[in-house]
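Title: [Solved] Nucleoid-associated protein FHS68_005112 3D structure

Original question kept below for reference.
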Amino acid sequence: MFGNMADMMGLMGKMKDLQSRMKEAQDQLSTITQTAESGGGLVKATVNGQKALIALDIDQDLVNPDDKEMLQDLIVAAVNKAFDNIEPKIKEHLQKATDGVLPNIPGLDLGAFMK
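Solution (posted by the thread starter after getting help):
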């Protein structure tokens, strides 16, 4: 009987440790950044691990009121590419943060905890 109780207490301790590590990892995601560009570098977008656009750089030559649609397309392309490229960094960060607390389960996506 006491063996099962000790196992349960150990599991509860691991869950608290996991919860603490996940909170810390989430807080640190703002420091992970990814920059992507479109239009051959004319538009650059930087996002962070919290999936927020934190910087946008547009080459002066693109600022043409007569070609607003092209500029908008390049901005969207750069931002989407940056968001796509940050995903592996987020997963790696979360795996490192929970190393030793959770078993290595293939297919377990810790990014789901971030939503």
